[in-house]
Every structure is written in C-alpha cells, then in structure tokens.
C-alpha cells in the first residue's frame, strides 16, 4: 500500500482506444494507476486481454487485476457475449444496439469501486464516450453522476471516490488526436467486436474507430481484413 500522499486511481482498462487514452490521462494527472480488466465472455476476450497486458507494460503499471465475470454469457442477450446472436455489420442503427451488454458499465464500476476502496484510491477512471458512442445507456454523463452518488453512499465514510470520465464529451476524431498528442501506443489497442487476428472493419466499433482516424487524418496502426 502506498503512502497517503500518493494520488491513486483505479483505471478500468479494456484494451480499447478510449480506456487506454483515459488511463494515459490519469497518469498525466499524476495518479498512481491500479489497472482493472474484465474477462466477461466477450468474443474477443483473448485479444482484449493481450491489449490490456501490453498497455500495462507501456504504462509500467505494477498493480493490476484481471477479473473474470462468467455470468454475462449465462444471461446472453448481447451479440458480444452470446454466440447465437450475430454482431451487426451494416452500420450504426438508431436505438440501443444488440451489442449492448446489460448494465455492463454499472457492474464494472461496482467491482472497480470495491477495488478502489480496498486500495484507498481517490479516483476511478472509465473511458465512456457519450456523444460518439454506439448509443449505450450506461455511457452517459447522467448515469456516471448517479453512480458516483450511489458508490459514495454505499462505501465507508472515509472512502471518497470520484468517477472521472475525461472522454465523455469528445468525438472519436478528438480521441485519436489526443491519443497521438499524449504518445499513446494505439498499435497495442483493440476495438473490434468480432475478430482477434485482424479487425473486421465493419462492426460498429471498427466503423467508429476507422471514421475517427479518417477524420483526424491519421492512419490506424492496427491490421484490418482487406
């Protein structure tokens, strides 16, 4: 356990571009980072775990948690965790997409809060993006604000945790530009919902990512299927 003068932050780090940039911002703000990654039965679980480990090496993070949450595959209901539901590849549709995992960020934040309380961290970083996301209800400013109230209500009086969402109002092109500015190793990040060797380029997540790079006028360093 670090001394009380050290600022500590728990960073939820999926290995994607947004959570990686969020973690770099935490480091830039002077926090000692405790990284948390979730294996929840997502299609690209192995590839995301590799990204997480690579990024932890890049950031020289010593304290990290790899948490298994098997029940998401048990309940299904999402194309990310249920093999019988196809990941859509036709572009972003209106409404909440089938790739939404029920209350995933609420569950991630709850577990990360338990870790933050144990580690005596003051902040919890999550790379949610409201304006340029896929329409997930658990990525909004309003949701994060209510979760902040709930976690501080339900933890010890001495525990004071701020949920920090540095990217929540950014567009994908701004995220790409900010990542380049902070020298984030984007080649180590993974965003594809479907594939683990070469990104598919057509799922919602790939489309958002590719469009962000295009609008930022920067070449995406990860491999895509032809």
Automatic annotation (TrEMBL):
Swiss-Prot/TrEMBL GO biological process terms: tRNA queuosine(34) biosynthetic process
GO molecular function: ATP binding; ligase activity, forming carbon-nitrogen bonds; zinc ion binding
Enzyme Commission number: 6.3.4.20
Pathway stated in the Swiss-Prot or TrEMBL entry: Purine metabolism; 7-cyano-7-deazaguanine biosynthesis
Keywords, in A-Z order: ATP-binding, Ligase, Metal-binding, Nucleotide-binding, Queuosine biosynthesis, Zinc
Matching InterPro entries: QueC, Rossmann-like_a/b/a_fold
Residues the entry annotates as binding Zn(2+): 192, 200, 203, 206
Binding-site positions, ATP: 13-23
Cofactor descriptive note: Binds 1 zinc ion per subunit.
Pfam families associated with the record: QueC
Cofactor(s) needed: Zn(2+)
Function: Catalyzes the ATP-dependent conversion of 7-carboxy-7-deazaguanine (CDG) to 7-cyano-7-deazaguanine (preQ(0)).
Family: Belongs to the QueC family.
Protein name from the UniProt record: 7-cyano-7-deazaguanine synthase
Annotated source species: Arcobacter arenosus
Gene of this entry: queC
